[in-house]
Amino acid sequence: MNYIVVLCMIDTYEAAKSIARTLVESKLAACVNIVPQITSIYSWKGEIVEDNEFLLIIKSKSEAYDKLEAKIKELHSYEVPEIIAFDINKGLPEYLRWIEENVK
Length: 104
What we know:
Helix content: 25-40%
CATH topology: Alpha-Beta Plaits
Largest sheet: 4 strands, antiparallel
CATH class: Alpha Beta
Number of helices: 3
CATH architecture: 2-Layer Sandwich
Number of domains: 1
Distance between the termini: 12 Å
Structural class: alpha+beta
Strand order of the largest sheet: 2-3-1-4
Order of helices and strands: EHEEHEH
């Protein structure tokens, strides 16, 4: 089984909680951490933008990625949301088993 961590930025705490809860309730993620008040500086449509955002750290399985991505896009307010996945190469076997048990 392959496990992943997905990063996603969002503009409000309420939206972060809503997406996190939906992903966990729908068994697309075992856990979502919300990291508050990150300053993001980025280029968007020819402008340099500075925003305060919230980072979602999502733990899931590779097999669930397509549905997880689709659900985030459905719920997210950004035109192009940041959705970036990384493979988990190693981890505590009991924790990885917990992810397995909590993601469809």
